[in-house]
Amino acid sequence: MINRVKVEELCRARFRMILEGDVIEQLENIPERSVQCVITSPPYWGLRDYGTAAWIGGDKECNHYRDNHVSDSCTTGHSKSQKKGGIGDSIYKTNCKKCGAKRIDQQLGLEETPEEYVEKMVDVFRGIRRVLKKDGTVWLNLGDSYATHGSARGKGQFGIDMRNDPRKARMRKKTPAAQIGMKEKDLVGIPWRVAFALRGDGWYLRQDIIWQKPNPMPESVTDRCTKSHEYIFLLTKSHHYFYDADSIREPYNTANETPRSEKFYGLRNKAVEDGMKIQTALPQSRRYTHDGRNKRSVWTISTKPYKEAHFAVFPPELPEICIKAGSKEGDTVLDPFFGSGTTGWVAHRLGRKWIGIELNPEYIKIAERRFSQQELFAN
Prior knowledge:
Elements: H1 4-11, E1 16-20, H2 23-27, E2 35-40, E3 48-49, E4 54-56, E5 86-87, E6 102-104, H3 114-131, E7 132-142, H4 168-172, H5 176-179, H6 190-200, E8 204-212, E9 229-236, H7 257-265, H8 269-273, E10 298-300, H9 317-326, E11 332-335, H10 342-349, E12 353-358, H11 361-378
Parallel strand pairs: 1-12, 2-7, 2-11, 8-10, 11-12
Antiparallel strand pairs: 3-5, 4-6, 7-9, 8-9
Helix pairs in contact: 3-6
């Protein structure tokens, strides 16, 4: 385990570092106000087990999840060849229903209720606030989920076909939807619950950014649209903060924007074409320049699988935008839920220092192999 003194030494040098363990505990090892930018995607509530649990009692050979919810492919969850983990309602959060083992786990996302998850997120972000510089930014990616007791084919929360089962009424009273005070099919609203809770805890909730996915995961639903977006929230600890708008500008849509600027400001197109800054009393973010328009709040970025990771990973373009806007070369970037290390990989390429925190040692191995390949091709 790397102690706080060692971390402080590393923070004074140009470094990259992965801290293994519980996120709240490891945040305590990072010096106060040493991080400029935080980019992270925490485990979503109730959607996935990342295989970090220790099980007490029961059958040691049991995999501790409902086998009928496990996929033959790693694209949607854990494969049948793996001994632990699962997705969605295959997860046993506290006790294994097959062998009676008790779950001991530090991972985020397996709380019994949304309220417990939000409370844990607030605790995590108090630690992030301590290590973040006064003018720092946080870019938080979160997805949502639905309250349901099973699939449209009548599978209950225990994987039982309940269409002709005499226990149907009794089982329905114990569905997760009812337990969390919702109706079946309700959207839980986790991203906004977390965002409002963080705002209430003192964070500035500056913006909701839509990550639009041109290649979303297919869904078999027929009574709503296929989900093809997630939220990225921009949070700050201060009223004024570092934000480099010029580094992430978009190309003009010349058919609409350049004529509008000419008409509104009374300037000729040639002024823009020649690279002259349009001098107005408006803030910098609204000035038309030769370099492009201000970044819009809908980011269209395709998901990209990483061959060694069975879990969802950031497409590199996403943290690249956040790192460019939220930091300068030589600044420190933190991802407290490091996973396969995409944030650190991009930060290193952009000349930033970085720190990652990860609970699962297997994911750390994936990230380390990834960085070894980065060094190989950099030489």
